[in-house]
Structures
1.
Amino acid sequence: MLERLWKWVIALTDWAVGTDWTSEEEHRHARLVAGVLFVMSIPGLLYSVHFIVIGVVWMAVAVALTISSATASVLWLRYSKKPVTAGVLGVTAFCCLLTTSAYSTGGFYGPNFAWLYVIPVFAALLANMRTGAVFTGIVLLVTVGFWLAERHGLPIVNFIPEEERSVRSLTDRGGAILAIGVAIAIIASRERLGSKKLGDAYDSLKEEMQQRELLHDRMIHTERLASMGKLSAAVAHEINNPMTYVIGNLQALQEDEAYDEEEQAELVRDALDGAMRVSALVKDMQVYSRTPDKRQHDDVDVEAALDTAAKMVGNRVRYCAQFRMECEPGLRARGSEAQLVQVIVNLLTNAIDALEGAVEDNELTIEATACSEGVWIEVRDTGQGIPNDVQKKLFEPFFTTKDIGQGTGMGLAISRSLMEGMNGSIRFESTPGVGTSFYLVLPAAGDEQVKADEVTVSTATTSAEVLKILVVDDDAAVLRSIRRMLGSHDVQTEDDAKRALQRCGEERYDIILCDIMMPSMSGDKFYSELKATQPTLESHVVFMTGGVLTPNTEEFLASVDRPVLRKPLNLDELRSIVTRS
Ligand code: ADP
């Protein structure tokens, strides 16, 4: 029954205001105004009949005015789609009605007078607070007018016959209660609309922020890859040099057996040294290209980060300036190593671009010390400096003075955003023709963080014991090499992760060394299945990776907190992880 009544109300208000509103909220507001006008028109109709019957023309005119302004507001709603204006018209109608009613039923002391005070509330609800304030003023004026009229003995005509007054007063009071009920309904519905609107706004803002963050991260990564592209020639040089004697020495050993023991040892030592250099460079590049996890700031070994950055640009620096790096020993900052390296590489690249002339005349210096805010890093060059008009725009995205293909203009904008992301700062001083200094400040490292590689492998053994180790990797050469490296232990190898899982069910291993990227089953899948089938072995897993990690894999590794060995494996590192109990 109630439901049907509600449907009729909706249909009636829809008929009044139309349904082609651009927003659902506006539509609801319009319906509300129309609904209230309908409710108000019922006593209006009764009054008109009453006044026409007793033949008071001017009262009938006042009521006609009420009804016409109510109609005008409905039409306004329907054709101009402005609920606020319609609300104001509606309240005006209400005002006419109540003033007439109050005047005709006892004036200032009459039962209808109290109705007047409802008007501003309706005005505020149907339109807005300002309209409410205007109507408060009107009602106050009317009140003062009535009060003055009565004080000065102006005859207040009471058209309600004596015998009807109690009944009229009852209906008026009922009407007032109804009006207050409607007002409360409006408040509740407004509140709902308001909170929904707020909720929607919050959701869309959140979505926009997420989009921006994503875009920002992509931009940082793109800029990093772009600068890696610029560095690729230098990197190739750094790799090809040592590879010349790695390959040369190994071929010499393979083809010529006439070397004595000492010469053989030297050939092997040099080849190993070259391979280590390449491996270190690749590791540095991985640090640089890795997408850092913004939420997780680590303790950063500042010297190592500066070293990595210097190596990345080393080959370019060598041909344009005398390079000097001074770092206070043991300096640690709080932040992300990859991000710090990215910032320093960018500063060094810019400095190199600004250096002209002979190597002996140019200086490029990095200094790092502790300071009151944490860690202070300065990158100083004796290049051409930055002109005053350029200085203002330096951190603006896409601002560059370099030729197309030489600069993206994003380096410093991104550097600043990275520094701020680590709760640090970046600023510069430059004198045209003399040189430029960039200053970085980072918070000092705290000691609350447990480092990931301090996670231990749960084996109830001591380092002297022979461990049963399963190595899972799809590359047979890697398996052979690890078996050789861990020769003193019982090492079993498996090139198929599914078969490895089966073996784990049959035998008990102290350590399971597992590659992350495998064709038949990825390392993370292997780990999850092992956890499900052999929960006790989960803490025996050590991961190995060639370095190319997807964001999902990075997230997985961070979540499981297992040790990770990065290839190429280092014998000492491998042994220390294996024997750590
Ligand atoms: P990009 O290097 O791609 O141009 P950046 O944001 O890293 O973008 O640098 C913006 C501009 O700032 C550069 O084009 C250059 O004009 C100026 N600049 C930055 N560092 C230096 C410096 N050490 N010496 C002179 N000019 C610099």
2.
Amino acid sequence: MDKFLIKGGKKLKGSIKVTSAKNAYLPILAGCILSEKPIVLTDCPKYIDIINMGKILENLGGKVKESDENLQIDCSSLTSSNIPQDLASVLRSSIFSLGSILGRFKRAKVAYPGGCEIGARPIDLHIKGLKALNVKIIDKHGYLTCDGRNMRGGRVNLDFPSVGATENIMLAAVLTKGETEIINAAKEPEIIDLANFLNSLGAKISGAGTSVIKITGVKKLNGGVYSPMPDRIIAGTYLIAGMMAGGNIQIENFRAEDNIALLEKVKKTACNIKLENDILTLKSDGRLKAINKIETSPYPGFPTDLQAQILALQSISKGTSMVVENLFESRFKHVPELVKMGAKISVKDRTAVVHGVEKLYGADVNATDLRGGVALVLAGLVAEGYTTVNNVRHIDRGYYQLENQLSSIGAEITRI
Ligand code: EPZ
């Protein structure tokens, strides 16, 4: 089981490039199931979740080939409409293959999805949405067996702007006859990217990025080439790393419009940030003022996927702050590990109260999920002495060779 060994205290310097977005690539890969023509996705990141999503497509009979950083996908001769437990259980995004498989085959049998241990991760909104398209669903023994022979466009009002449910319904509606309307849809940039990808293949989707998305079913999709957006969570992670460690870094592919909430919060922390043509320049002396309150909420609110990272930042910022996690009910598992390093954080229900400390101390800590694991790496960058982060497989799900990325801008971190 790989670990990261980090020697804290190094200032960061130099330029780092944000890679493609995991949470755009995953639904886009699911969307490839809808087309019988070849598709090329550029700059494919080698995150474990992406590799596992490729395995799901191959299990359906698709061909997935990597060629100099791009991914060539051919779903012309799919032979199955099933996703078995062993594949579905390794990642959450297996569930939105369901919408694509139904759109293509009008039938599907998929096992319940897996993913990070950050909460119950129910799929009731996915099921509600597919039923609105007249899909008959039998939910038994951890499998969803779906009959879509009489699918038609429909209207669904989501009780919560679920990212995955919005994507699943969109994917199911693209090849389904009639008009579909998703009300209270998620507005994340990855939703816009998925709609742009599908429209580039000939789909008819409008309103992505707003709370009402309309899809007019079409008969077939073409093939094509598409470049998914950069990963706004990785971009935010690098910004927070630079703020904590101090130094002077440039972050390429930092799209300001994807990180408005984070930029709004950090501009008050006395570090110097400049943004021009998607390149963010940060100068920080590592001495920061606490941000008094951060509450996660659906886009364009503060992203839950940056909650752990900004909590690590607050743990060394001067003053007291509150971080409220509104999206997932158990997304504070990184707190006990940060406390091992000397952080002063107390959690009650969904609120963490942080008293900033002068110094963190290197320790042996355990990654429990993707973003919680990264928060421990950020803390290790500034802690006195050595930090070992265990179970980095969680981190590899959404960052490719994070140790090399951070070493390239001066951090002392190796994989052991
Ligand atoms: C996506 O997960 C992301 N994953 C998550 O990123 C991200 O944290 C989340 O959206 C919120 O932005 C991918 O895109 C692969 P949701 P998803 O459905 O779709 C409740 C990361 O670190 N809900 O928007 O599963 C749910 O319990 C990962 O990259 C229902 O109640 O998130 C949660 O409280 C972690 N019923 C809230 O909605 C449902 O049917 C948000 O979930 C679905 C969701």
